[in-house]
Amino acid sequence: MSPEDTASRHAAIAHHPVIWAVSAYRLTDIFRGIAPEFSAQADIHIINKGFADAVDEIQARLRHERCDVIVAAGSNGAYLREHLALPLVLVKVGGFDILAALTRARQVSDRIAIVTHKTTAPELGKFIRLFDLPIKERSYETADQARHCIRALAAQGIAVVVGPGLVANLADELGLHGVFLYSLDSAREAFSDAVEIARIKHVEASRHAQLDAVLQHLSDGVVAIDMTQKVLSVNPAMLRLAGSPETPMAQWLGKPLREVLPAVRAGSVLTRGWPDLGSVEQVGQRTLVINRVPVFEQGVQTGAVLTVIDSGDVEQVTSRLRLHQQVKNRHARYHLHQVAAVSTRMKQLIALCETYARRSDATVLISGESGTGKELIAQGIHNASRRAAEPFLAINCGAFTESLLESELFGYEDGAFTGARRGGKAGLFESAHLGTIFLDEIGEMPLVLQTRLLRVLQEKEVMRVGGRESIPVDVRVIAATHRDLLGMVEAQQFRQDLFYRLNILQVVIPPLRQRPEDLALLAVTLFDAAFKRAGLQDQARDIVKSVLPLFMSHSWPGNVRELENAAERLAIGCIALHGIPGPDDLQRLLPELHGPRVAGSGARPPAAAGELKAVTRQTEKAHLQSVLSECTGNQAEAAKRLGISRATLWRKLRA
């Protein structure tokens, strides 16, 4: 037999129902006769005692034995049910049992009485009335009442008494003829019911054990209460939140909620039966988030469940969700050929990045103003390198707390800190093995983590938080910043040794104002995307043609990101205006491109009287913009038409 089969067999034996059949009278013989029929379904033990003696025997056995269900009958069964907390099945008297017993009684005498526990069977009354039989009906609750009843029947001339074992025995003792009421079939049915109850009990116990195991391991506190606010169940997390982690859970059970957890109220969940979710309450030094949910059984409310979460845990989860949004655990999407590069300066930059990607694995430091596309360049370098098929992971070093950034970059071991994932977690350096990690806003990294990062760059290995062994990693690092790192080094805000480790290969992205030749291509690309999202792709080129002169005279302090925002704003403006915006509309939609305004109007302030040079400059600039618009933003073509150099055109537009 295999180990799995052996384990299954042991499990089956462990959960085999155990039934105790209890009787001190004639039913004992029937129990013994039927028990072998159920040997494959249950372990049946016969206890030949009744009433108080049976209770004492059962309680003694329960100290070292297991019992799932008790089977008994009549007043003995009622007594056991009242004094024991075990499921109990009563042997029921059926119509066939009554007819069979009366038939046997008629063979002895016509003077018959039937005595049953508490009530008589409805079938018996119908039978007696139907056949006009001279049968007396009596009932009893206790053994003394049964003895008194039989004496009274004997005085009335009754010769045969039909009833349970107690009644039949008492009749025989008093000189009457006792006929036993129960049959094999009624006992057999009781055993079948007992087996089914034991099975359901086991299923419910297993389900309860599973739920209890879940509750015990939940990080949220859980407490269940009944309609009187008494505690029915509680988990260890609730004890910790209540400041009583060493208190046995049993001490909470059955006590009022206000006594064990006075700061947490049941609220209206018990009176109104409605869930109350997300309530924030102060318990001692803790801020807790409490959810209250009513519990119903068969449509009737029986209590409520309160789940309690520490606000610190909520904040930590929120931070990790934010981090998950920031960390792009995917392959890079952009390539270097997608970068708008019409200007000589940008073409040279792209060629340099191609060389860095294909000829070197050294660290790259990308510098540039916000919005110039540093991550796009980083992704392009990755996709042009031998690591293109491997992971590209990006994280903003300035977006998170020091501890959170540390655990995400370097990972952590199991139990390294409160709330740590069971089994630990690999950091980004491990996850990016053989690929590239992009550290955006590297200038925002805390000095403590700069030291750890320096070791990773030097030793090519990482140690998790709470770990003792270093893990080798093969990762290319690309860092980016909009800050002056060298100035930060001089101000002792950035480690000098880390700066030189990062600044091996340099990429300096010029701001948009320094590469006007790229503006038209960028505008077309970004407008096509924005207007396509708005469902207006057919209007994109016309809008670009109308606004390009304005764009060429703007300094774009937000760089490509500002240009992208302008495209998005114009796309939505076209939807609102149901068409291409006119000059006044453009001034409202893009006020930053029109310079100062006169209060109360959308027009530029006119030149002061007599300022001929100012008037001339405005006229000249308007003419230059008109020609540039006719050339669809092509500065080379516009300069050729105007008979000036492209540099002169740019200077005059900027004047």
Automatic annotation (TrEMBL):
Keyword Transcription regulation found: yes
Residues annotated as domain Sigma-54 factor interaction: 339-572
Keywords, alphabetical: ATP-binding, Nucleotide-binding, Transcription, Transcription regulation
Domain PAS, chain residue ranges per copy: 207-243
InterPro entries found in the cross-reference section: AAA+_ATPase, AAA_lid_NorR, Homeodomain-like_sf, HTH_Fis, P-loop_NTPase, PAS, PAS-like_dom_sf, Sig_transdc_resp-reg_PrpR
Gene3D superfamilies on file: 1.10.8.60, 3.40.50.2300, Homeodomain-like (1.10.10.60), P-loop containing nucleotide triphosphate hydrolases (3.40.50.300), PAS domain (3.30.450.20)
Transmembrane segments: none
CDD domains cross-referenced by the UniProt entry: AAA, PAS
Protein name per Swiss-Prot or TrEMBL: Propionate catabolism operon regulatory protein PrpR
Originating species: Polaromonas jejuensis
Gene: prpR
